Amino acid sequence: MAWRTLYTRNTRSWVAARSIPRTAPVASSASGMRFFSTISSTSTQQYTQQHHEPHAHTTPTAVTQDGTPVKSTLTFYVNGTKQEVSSVEPDVTLIDHLRSVLGLTGTKLACGEGGCGACNVTVSHYDPEKGRVVHRALNSCLVPLAAVEGLHITTTEGIGSTIRDPSKMHIVQRELAECFGSQCGFCTPGFVMSLHSALLNNPKASVSELEKTLDGNLCRCTGYRPIMDTVKKLAAHAEAGQAVQGEGTLPEELMTYSHQPLKFEGTRATWYRPTTMDDLLALKAAHPDAKIVAGNTEVGIEQKFLNRNYPHLICPSHVRELNQIRTDVALEGKPALEIGGAVNLSEVRDFLKNKANSFTVDQAHKRRIIDAALAQLWWFSGTSIRNAACLGGNIVTASPISDLNPVWVAVGARFKLRSAAGGERTIMASDFFLPGYRQTALRPDEVLVSVIIPYAEENQYVEAYKQARRREDDIAIVNTAMSATFNKDGTVKEAKLAFGGMAPSTVRAKEAENYLKGKKWSQETVDEACRLVRKEFKMKDGTPGGMEEFRVTLAQSMLYRFFLSVAKQRDIKEIVQAPEWASMESAIEPLPFHMASSGTQIVTLPHPDKKVVGQNIMHMNATKQVTGEATYADDSRQMPHELTGMLVLSKRPRAKLISINATKALALPGVHGFFSSKDVPGDNQIGDIVHDEEVFASKEVNFVGEPVGIIVAENEVIAKQAAALVEVEYEDLVPVYTIREAIRKSSFFPNEHVIDTGDIEKVLTSKDDGVAQGEIMIGGQEHFYFEPHSTIAYPADDEIHIVTSSQNLNKTQLFVASALGLPACKVPTMVKRLGGGFGGKETDNIKFACGAAVAAFHTNRPVRLVLSRDVDMNITGKRHPFQGVYRVGYTPDGMLKGADIQLYSNGGAFHDLSWPVMDRAIFHVDNAYNFPNMRVKGRICKTNIASNTAFRGFGGPQGMFVSETCIEHVADNLGMHPDDVRKRNLYNYSDKTHYGQPINVDIKAVWEQCEKTSDYWKRRAAIDKFNSENRFRKRGISMIPSKFGLAFTATFMNQGSALVNIYTDGSVLVTHGGVEMGQGLHTKVCQVVAEALNVDLNKVHVSSTGTDRIPNASPSAASMSSDIYCQAALDACIKINEGLAPIRANMPGASFKQIVNAAYFSRVNLAAQAFHKPQVSGYNFETKQGSPFIYYTTGVAATEVEVDTLTGDYRALRSDLVMDLGRSINPAIDIGQIEGAFIQGQGWSTMEELVWGDEEHKWVRPGTLRTNGPGAYKIPSADDIPRDFRVTLMKDIDNPTTVHSSRAVGEPPLFMGASVFFAIKRAIAAARQDSLGLTGEEAFYRMDLPATSERIRMGCYDHLVAGLANDLQR
User: Fold this and answer.
1) Which residues contact 661 (CB under 8 A, 6 or more apart)?
2) For residue 301, which phi and psi values (nearest 5 degrees)?
3) pLDDT score of 165
4) What is the reported pTM?
5) Other Cβ atoms closer than 10 A to 837
6) CA distance 332 to 354
């Protein structure tokens, strides 16, 4: 079929903008020339023929049918500089060119599929119809280089620089930095350019408009609140006319640019860009199998992820008929709209919005179809996608979950098709989509020219709904458009119910449609229609996409919502005047998801006597990050003779390796070698604690994605092709995937850790007390650091140097040295900064560094190994999934007597860090509650998935979640609110934990402060009132405490050193063993040093971290880096100050530089190294002695949510976070850590669901990870954060165990994000109470983590769920 860009996620196509003459009356689409995109991960290192010398346009070598010259040289501008490329590969993307050829590495490649926004750039062109320049934020990872002909590209380096002139940073950059909106910085350039584009296009943009602009940008670090503060400040500048001044002009050449037909012949494909319909149709006739690439989101994804090759790509972006919007057409004799197939969705939305607003009051009915389309377009992907995705591409891909196709089917839209041989024909939308996956009536030589959309009739009512895992930038689980037209007597004349997500294509519920015809609109009618929907869409277990019962429930829930909406619009008295209507009316409108957010931070400066420590100092990397000048591992310029590495990965979950044959791969030109286990010159064994892993699998593979070798080649394209040619023969063995399966098969790693205090059996057998027992499943979590794993290994003399994105340089150095058979001193290992880590770069990077080093060792050439996002997610560890089995004893008044808890974790294929993760879960299973008697056991399941690993919280959140589940169970059994049970069981200051350590913190004071600042009791009463008045909207509130122990539980790891060097110009260089990954470690260290030496902060600098400067450093983990390295740096300064003291005494009033120079001439040492080891004994599981932690950081969160019980959507309305951080070194940075951790915890507990091919997901290939990119795995977006987000730091609380009385903050706040989960659970309980009226022990219901929309909806038991349950029982 022609023009069939296949989609595995959403049907998104891409167009770019160009000015095209249109015939009147034609409404202007928001930009003339449009983008067409070919996604590719290909690096431009492959096309060395390119050159950029300014020269006249190359003489065309071809002409079109009418003799128009065809251009074969690409001309465009980047940051004001003209670029000309004479040889273009159609599958090379703009980001490849920016980074690899132009060296503009500020544009970041984080996902490669347009799902995160990190690669966004501003793309500009002149639109003569508008008489102005149009600016668009576009994903440069999707835009083909071939598509930028005649355009101007602006990157973050192009709008401001800290190197050229710091005073000329762009206002967007400056505000984002000063608002603390950049932590790790990897996503930051994308946010900058999205806001830059929006302000250029609309210099008066409002807060809500700017917030919506960021719906395609994700951030893993900040929690978004400081970014939203930036938006508010920019909107204020915009209102004052100060946001963008004198910007947005184009080079004169582009203001009058003449666009010719294009043809680029590459080595793998040919790109055509015709400028007339005749030429387009002739090309399609000549190449029926050609892909028409108006957007290319799917073609590019197929090329990148499925290794598919399409030799002919035709771009219709400059064909007038496909790029016009007409208002003068008729459909069946009635006025209608016609929108060209290549018009991008932002233009479609803008046009439809303006058209809808043009109707008078008495014409309001006409806009109902338009409003339905606008409802879907609002949530259609993100802004940078809509800026390029085209209407026709969305249609012809025929995705079963297209957001728009159900609208066209339900309203009777027509599609205009054309071919050279068959001419033009028009087809009903409902006839266009054929049965079967992505099957359409489009013939091989046809193209979709336009869509004809009718206006609604007076008695026609149209609605469209969508339910996804995340509201913003997500594909639908189920979507629908419904239309009902009524006769004058109130009966239904015609009904059309079109659904996506219910079949392999867009389908109609025809039995329900036929039933509705002629019926009165009543409760009885809709009940029967829902039954027919359930019958028609009954799904078998294992249906692709899963969630079978949920999807059927959604379909009927949407129909029920439509029923109520129409009843209200038609004012049907029997329904709207019924006594229950007031509470049912809440079902009509979806939750309000597009409100401007607000945030409040309450802080008392903790060190009023200090100049630098305790101040809100901006992150010292922030200005470099917002300008794109902060460099990461893969930003290093290509070295001479550098090779690209590509891992060869196992395709089996568990199997013996019979043979590996790389003959075909090595025969490919440009391939320089293949290396496997037999080529490892030293020890092939690795593993952080137990050496049970291998650099390359030698005899057996234990998970899909385990490396069996590495290919090195001239560039990424060749390396990827070669890796696919390596032939591996397996002998399959029986795999194990899940905890349940491992328990059944007794698949465990050796040993079990146990803590047993008190007499738990006596408690659980007491006749006077109650016992709650059950189990809970806790899902894992993907780190989703934005910077993928990256390593550069290069030979230098007899050394191998490693540049790697690692939190653990010491272990990386040791294992690389071991693999190479070299002493560690000959493997210096370094990192400048990380684009996020969260524990995911503590051990996983080691095998990648070893693989790259082995290849560099054998080739004696630099080797760069950078994982693509999907590979990174497929083959690296996650947060450990857990199962908790519990029995808990309690008194009638809700006091806890004791608990017996069995913990199981899914360790994956190898040990990795699973034992210390389990130990921390065991230590934290009490959370903040005093269990007088406790027995807790931990077992680690051995399974055949990638070994799970460290993740922020390191097992603590999983243990804490089990205790909170116990609290909920006890409270429901007693008919109490869980928060009341929580409060009365909190630890007292002097209480001891179940492992015997005094807590020495006042968690009750933090709880009381949170009660006060959140106005908890007033809001709880208001929630009860709201729930009594609303049947299909429910609210819940929950207060969740967190007590987190600080220290590596492996005692020897609590150590670190720092080196302070003072230069004679008065500047200070600090080197320490910690890794900066956005947490502000370097900033805090500099603050401590500046304070200690009494020197200006801008004179203190931390460079990169390296093993050649600080040996044997513990990983930057366990939230210990600030405690260790700030203290070590302070101790070093104390040593230096001792030497400077006499000189200072003799030079009162002298500057630091003068004092330093005097010291130098007096031969005083101006450098000092210091070593710090916190005092902690550690815990011995055999003797049951010792204290594992130095101290605890505590906090409490109160969160209120609102739930849509019909769909499972929720909105976090307000969160109040209170934390005891002692006396913070930098309150603003610490608040950023609190907010970021909270949102990460919210994501873990509510939406971030890992889907593997296992016994619960039989529709996924066994052992493979389905959720391996932002298209399928959803982290929170800015729209998901609490609308009212408040943080308070307790004041004037000392912590004598740490530097400047501070407390660690990285991990402790994460579990507070689970307050969203438990607030949702309270809302669900209110819904269940309405439906079931259960009390006592029957009231408790189990809800596993995460609280996805599926679990929320199915937990809100109502008549629709009951109907489905009854059907299933029959």
Assistant:
1) 726, 727, 728, 729
2) -65, -40
3) 77
4) 0.94
5) 30
6) 24
- Output the pLDDT for position 110: 97
CA distance linking residue 511 with residue 498, whole number of Å: 12
List CB contacts of 1118: < 8 A, sequence separation 6 or more. Answer: 954, 1046, 1047, 1048, 1053, 1307
By C-alpha distance, which of 493, 468, 499 is closest to 481? 499
Q: Are 1345 and 959 in contact (CB under 8 A)?
A: no
Residue in 1202, 1186, 1144, 1242 with CA at minimum distance from that of residue 1352: 1202
- Strand order from edge to edge, sheet including 727-732: 700-701, 655-661, 727-732
Q: If you compute the radius of gyration of the chain from its CA atoms, what whole number of angstroms results?
A: 31
1119: closest CA among 912, 844, 1306, 905? 1306
**Burial group, residue 859, by CB count within 10 angstroms (0-12, 13-18, 19+):** middle
Q: What DSSP state is assigned to residue 634?
A: G
- Provide the pLDDT for residue 243: 82
DSSP state of 98: I
pLDDT at 738: 98
Token readout for 808 is 């653990």
**Neighbour tally for 1108: CB within 10 Å:** 14
Stretches where the chain sits below pLDDT 50 are 1-60
Q: Whole-angstrom Cα distance, residue 1049 to residue 1177?
A: 9
> Are 234 and 171 spatial neighbours (Cβ–Cβ below 8 Å)?
yes
Cα–Cα distance for residue pair 1073/1114, rounded to 1 Å = 7
Q: What are the DSSP calls for 1125-1168, one per residue?
A: HHHHHHHHHHHHHHHHHHHHHHSTT--HHHHHHHHHHTT---EE
For residues 472 and 466, give the distance between their C-alpha atoms in angstroms, rounded to a whole number: 11
Q: What is the pLDDT of residue 309?
A: 84
Q: Which two tokens stand for residue 944?
A: 């055949």
C-alpha neighbours within 13 Å on the C-beta side of residue 463 = 18
pLDDT at 199: 96
Do the bridges between strand 933-942 and strand 753-757 make them parallel or antiparallel, or are there none, so unpaired? Answer: antiparallel
Angle at 1016 between CA 1206 and CA 923, to 5 degrees: 85
Separation between Cα atoms, residue 266 and residue 1178, nearest integer Å: 62
Q: What is the pLDDT of residue 593?
A: 65
Token reading at 634: 């893969």
Cβ atoms of residues 996 and 989 within 8 Å: no
Enter the tokens of residue 609: 């006597």
pLDDT at 41: 29
CA atoms within 13 A on the CB side of 377: 23
Cα 597 from chain centroid (whole Å): 19
Separation CA 1035–CA 1020 (nearest Å)? 9
Q: How many Å apart are CA 1087 and CA 1096, to the nearest integer?
A: 9
Is 799 an annotated catalytic residue? Answer: no
Q: In angstroms, rounded to a whole number, what is the distance separating the alpha carbons of residues 109 and 106?
A: 10
Burial class (CB in 10 A: 0-12, 13-18, 19+), 148: buried
pLDDT of residue 65: 75
DSSP 886-941: EEEEE-TTS-EEEEEEEEEEEEESS-TTHHHHHHHHHHTTTTTB--SEEEEEEEEE
Cβ(447)–Cβ(316) under 8 Å?
yes
The 3-state secondary structure of 1240-1295 reads: HHHHHHHCCCCCECCCCCCCCCCCCECCCCCCCCCCCCHHHCCCEEEEEECCCCCC
Catalytic site residue from 1202, 1249, 1307, 1350: 1307
**Looking at the DSSP assignment, which residues form a beta bridge with residue 75?**
84
Phi, psi of 581 (to 5 degrees): -60, -40
Residue 1162, C-beta contacts closer than 8 angstroms, at least 6 positions apart: 1143
- For 1292: left if phi > 0, alpha if psi spans -120 to 50, otherwise beta; the answer is left
